[in-house]
Amino acid sequence: MGKLIKNHWARLIILTAAAYQVAAALSGFFWPKLFWDFLTTNLDHAVRPIPILQIINLLLGLLGLAWEWPLPLFTTAAISTRRSKNSNQKHGLKHTTSNNTRSPSYSQNLTTISRHIQRFLAGMHRSIEARLVVYPLSSLAALLLYQGTNAGLYYIIGMGVYFWGFSEGEVVMGVPWTLPRRVSGSGGRRGASKV
User: Fold this and answer.
1) Do 142 and 148 form a contact (C-beta atoms < 8 A)?
2) Which residue blocks in the chain are alpha helix, DSSP H?
3) pLDDT digits 0-9 by tens, 88-137
4) For residue 94, what is the enclosing H or E element?
5) Dihedral (C-alpha) 71, 73, 78, 79: value to the nearest 10 degrees?
């Protein structure tokens, strides 16, 4: 039997939580209610008349969906930064000693900025630590909304599984649902069973 890859399992749990959070936020627009309103009414202004908590839940749910089932922007950024890690920057600013130095053009600035954004997104996609920072906020926002309590509990379970994988040294690959490569010479013969 194979080894359980915790970050893939956690990804599925968080996808479920994020989808549930988006659905809870949308239903919260029609039936605004806090989960904790039986204890206090001080938080009622977060859901009505302006649906602040619903909007926060909607944005955090969409962020969770985009992060765990990444958009092509995330995956292409992850692949391109991995390939160009050791190469020199082709479009970087060059320092010259002549008096005829020009300021960088607008297109050079945009390429530099887009390269930095791609590296940031790739780093965020592969980072379990960043997930363990953002998902407690998503869980808190979901637990405050009455319709989102299940999503908040799913987030807590998913964070626990991500932490389990992180503590065992797992890494999130740049391309979703891929496995890390095996280190050569790390085991016995192929197909041999261990009893």
Assistant:
1) yes
2) 6-30, 52-68, 72-83, 106-126, 128-144, 149-167
3) 444 444 444 445 555 667 777 778 887 888 778 777 888 899 999 999 99
4) none
5) 110
